[in-house]
Amino acid sequence: MKQKRQLAGLIALLIIAAGVWGWYLRRNQLVAPTETGSLAQNYHLLAVENPHIRIEEIEKARKTEYKSTGRNIFSAVALPTQVSQSRSADPPKIVVNTPCGVYGPCPEPPPPPLTLPANMKFFGYGTGPNGASRRAFFHDTNGDDVYIVNEGQIFLNRFRILKIGNASLEFEEISSGRKGTAPLEEQTTGPSA
Fold this sequence. Notes:
The protein is α+β, with helices and mostly antiparallel strands. The protein has helices spanning 2-42, 55-63, and strands spanning 120-127, 134-140, 145-150, 154-155, 159-164, 168-173, 179-183.
């Protein structure tokens, strides 16, 4: 009984395969002659004067070197054009001694080192539950508020706490990316709760 079902299934699959094969051949015979004929009638040879390989032009192209004009070739925005003057039209340079050297104005001094606001004092540290992360304790001297901030969190919407050490705290100003440190300050009186 099982062999009869298998034989019937095999015969059914062969009939389906023969039908698909016949449909495919019939479709190709109907479509192929019309497409081939239209392609052969519309075909035109390219007008090439001399089809030999031009070794000299290939060598010339290989030896070329890209020279930038200062424009970013990956940007769609063009740089503003500048009127260039010839070197002979440049006025002679006048040597002027300045406090910073011989030529030009002094460069701007570097910004002062980054510090926490004057009313914020880093007065201690601790660890979170299970010793997972360190926490810094800040005291607001104006309002007697205490802030507890984990490493990696943002403090006062302006600073990110990078590392809490035993004697100091490393932080980063979010807007400028400048980094600074704050020493651990001992408090004479504890903050009121």
